[in-house]
Amino acid sequence: DDSVFYVSNYAGIIKEIYSIKMADIYHKEKWNIIPFPDSQGCLFYPSIAIMNDSICVVSGSKLSSVNILSYVNLQTGEISDLDFPFPGFVLPSDFKTAEHMIYCDAQLLKHPSQNKLLYVCRLGRYVKIVEIENRQISRQISLYSILPQYEVVNGDRKIKDDCLGGIVAKVTNDRIYCLVLPYTRKEENEQPFYKGMPNYFADELVVFDWNGNIIEAYRLDQPICNFGVDGTKNILYGTTLDGEDFVVRKYNLTNAG
Fold first, then answer.
1. Rounded-to-integer distance, Cα 235 and Cα 227, Å
2. Percent of the chain beyond pLDDT 70?
């Protein structure tokens, strides 16, 4: 339902999910609270894709799992892995905490009307379209495949200097919008600004369709740090700075339709 959005109550663990109608944003007493199942032994992040009234896909899994995503039945409490493993060769171990901290810390965006997800790792440039059928992943399409660069030190993650800073993504019925962050970890540490903006701002925007085809690429006239898209009008609203004030700029993406 386009008039409803979902928010995770997250403080290290997912406690519950709020289902909120747009008209009730400022009326917390009207929010629908959905209890989240006991996730002991799992490491979940707050990015959740609601598939239907009882099922969601969440970023994270059991600490002993090699998979990035889990399928959660909100009515029965059942939690099961989706076959979406950590990339590369993962050494056997009881717990894979470092891998979870790298790959499960991600954006998970659902197609508005189909059983398709966009997985976006917050480090590197690792983005995939994931299609789900009968509780199984039926198809994967890679949009970006540059993996996060890190090493495991005493069971914890250590980000390498050449690790890229990730991608911020949004989706509509027809399009996937990727704002590509420009710097590696080393460059972030050395350069606090990018084109006069803080170094987590970016100006490269790449637009795909849900089949993984590039539709258009843009270089915005000013770096932004976050954005929303009106897919019906091909308009992007980007958050940026004007002096010391945050402002919203409007961009007409005339060639993206």
1. 10
2. 96
